[in-house]
Structure prediction request, 223 residues.
Amino acid sequence: MNPTTWSGVRERVLALREAPNAAQVFGARGHRFELLPPLSEVEVAEAEQEFGVGLPADYRSFLLEVGAGGAGPHYGLYPLQRDERGWAWNEGRGVRSDNSLLPQPFPSPAEQARLRAAYDAREPVQSAFPDEPAFRVAFHAWDDEWEALSATLTAGAVCLSHEGCGYFDWFVVTGPERGTVWVDLGAADGPLQSLARTPHERLGFREWYLTWLTAATRQAHGR
Prediction:
């Protein structure tokens, strides 16, 4: 299969709705192996212009040939949709993606580690404050910085899927890691970690999606 085409993939996904063990596939009770209609070239180009970035070829062609979102790894693929505010990824429960940092390069693992270490080093120590109320004010101010730092750590990336237990998969669209998929382990105080076949071979969107489809097909058919 050409790396920028998805011939037959939409049909394969939709066919799993009729598989005998479809409901046993993780996440299938939510997405039910349904896919939104594909986007048009005009729609994808409009979204890219709005974001200020071009989407990597394999994901871009997925949107054009397979669907805007729906069935996919874990709890499914967040759909790219347009609402009254413009284009965004719909993360469910009324949450839409914040795309303001998409044009910025995704930080390297070394830069991510540096930013996290600097944040941790600023954590207030109670003994440095005259009383409990003063410490609490400082601690809450420090704790509130995490949201901004978290956004910085995922600059240049799109959240595509929820693995469960607060773990999320991100797809990098800018910078040297462009086209690769990462998992955010922050729910367990872990880092952003690349998904890779080997230490030197990052997993791209195409491999990430097709690996899921192969495994889901086997499980849905009890193989």
User: Anything to note?
Assistant: Strands lie at 80-83, 86-92, 95-96, 157-164, 167-172, 181-184, 192-194, 196-198, 201-202.
